[in-house]
Amino acid sequence: MTDIDQPSPEGARALVVPQMAPLPRRNFLFLQGLMGPFFRRIGAALRRDGYGVYKVNFNGGDVAFWRLPNGIAYRGSLEAWPDALRAIIRRYDITDVLLFGDCRPMHVEALTVCRELHLPVHVFEEGYIRPNWVTLELGGVNGHSSLPRDPDYYRKLAASLPDPGGNVHVPSSFPRRAAEGVAYNAADILTRRWFPHWKDHRPWHPLREGVGWLKRLSRRRRAERRTQALLRQIDSFSGPMMLFPLQLDADAQVRLHSAFDGIASAIETVIGSFARHAPRNMLLVIKEHPLDNGVKDWRRLIRETAKRHRVEGRVCYMEAGDIALIIHRAKGVVTINSTTGTLALAFGIPVITLGHAVYDIPGLTNQGRLDQFWSAPGEPDRATFEAFRRVLIETCLIPGGFFSEQGLGLLVERAIERLERHSPIAFADSARHVVPEHFSTPKAVH
């Protein structure tokens, strides 16, 4: 594997590289992906089709899941990374950069460099519409997306697009996700001496995260039993119900694209508002994120918070199961900017966002305050949502999933098709991507 040491002020040094053959057509540079084999599978497919493929590995977990030629180990600091990236782009005549999540520190710097050099950046993320979809967008996603917030834009554009048809069901395996997380973190820990400057974007040590995954797996059966009991309670409940799906505590969409510094502060805000303003016969169900790593005990925190606000009998915590099992029962959904919001809108369920979301559009989501939402959630416009969905599928969604062979196979196939559409020529109009002014400051909750 190629090494990149810390660059000198004049540029990257010690680029110990093999002699390379002339590069074909386009040359793709992968940065960090989701934990697992997704980037390796796309890289292998691109190599098969004759493209140049390179990968920067920032830690041992990246190395363990790449296992293809042209891996480049970056051992330098965040401050030296921009110069090192420029050197890589020049040396390998890179035409395209791929990454998962645009808010990781290394990726933030990479986006700045690529805008400077007018290189297209293909950003993967969890799908804006769930389940069965993955986002692949040029330039940025979520709070950094260039998608407009004008409902007329979607209605007009959708009228010229073909019917995308129904969803393809994509299976997903939590044990597989947990195993990949444990393997990635173990490889990271065991190789830290070779990556002395590496700092994870997640706010905890990988060993702690690995232990959390193992705990979640060991408690899975008890969580499923408690969830079944809760579902029976919901079925027999006669009053209105609101749903609050949790997001990952380390999710940059929470920390950078909302006023919250983490999930704990969001829980405090939502339960506090519910206690003060929700009808007395209303139930609040808080759903654990299916990929939560178990580092924090949300069940206990929610119980203590509800008790402090004197609504412990009206706040429930759902640990397992698909949120689609109960979303149709909800009078409304409160979210920061989770993709569960689009699932609710597909069911015609009112949604309010407490952060910045691509679907926070007049006519789709409640544009008022959380305190009023409990009693007057409003109603989403079905035609606007269908137009929004059609445009997303045509422009920045691909079917597939990360945590099953069927899902990965479909995802890789469609990602290659979309990458060929996202050519450097097609990128010309978006090379000067600018974060919309709408997202320059956190969204107020109250």
Produce a short descriptive summary.
The chain is of the alpha/beta class and 446 residues long. The protein contains 16 helices and 14 strands.
Describe this structure in words.
By secondary structure, this protein is of the alpha/beta class. It is 39% helix and 13% strand. The strands form two sheets. A nine-stranded mixed sheet has the order 2-1-5-4-3-6-7-8-14, sandwiched between helices. The protein has two domains: 27-165 and 400-424, 3-Layer(aba) Sandwich (Rossmann fold), CATH 3.40.50; 218-392, Rossmann fold (3-Layer(aba) Sandwich), CATH 3.40.50. The radius of gyration is 22 Å and the shape is globular. It is built from 16 helices and 14 strands. 46% of the residues are buried. It starts with a strand and ends in a 25-residue tail after the last helix. This is Capsular polysaccharide export protein.
Strand-and-helix sequence, N→C?
Answer: EEEHEHEHEHEEHHHHEHHEHEHEHEHHEH
Number of domains: 2
The name of the CATH topology of the largest domain is Rossmann fold
Q: Which outline best applies?
A: globular
CATH class of the largest domain: Alpha Beta
SS strand fraction = 5-15%
| E-strand count | 14
Number of continuous helical runs: 16
Radius of gyration: 22 Å
Q: Which strand order spans the largest sheet, edge to edge or round the barrel? A: 2-1-5-4-3-6-7-8-14
Mean pLDDT: 85
Features:
single chain, 446 residues, alpha/beta, Rossmann fold, 2 domains, nine-stranded mixed β-sheet, five-stranded parallel β-sheet, 16 helices
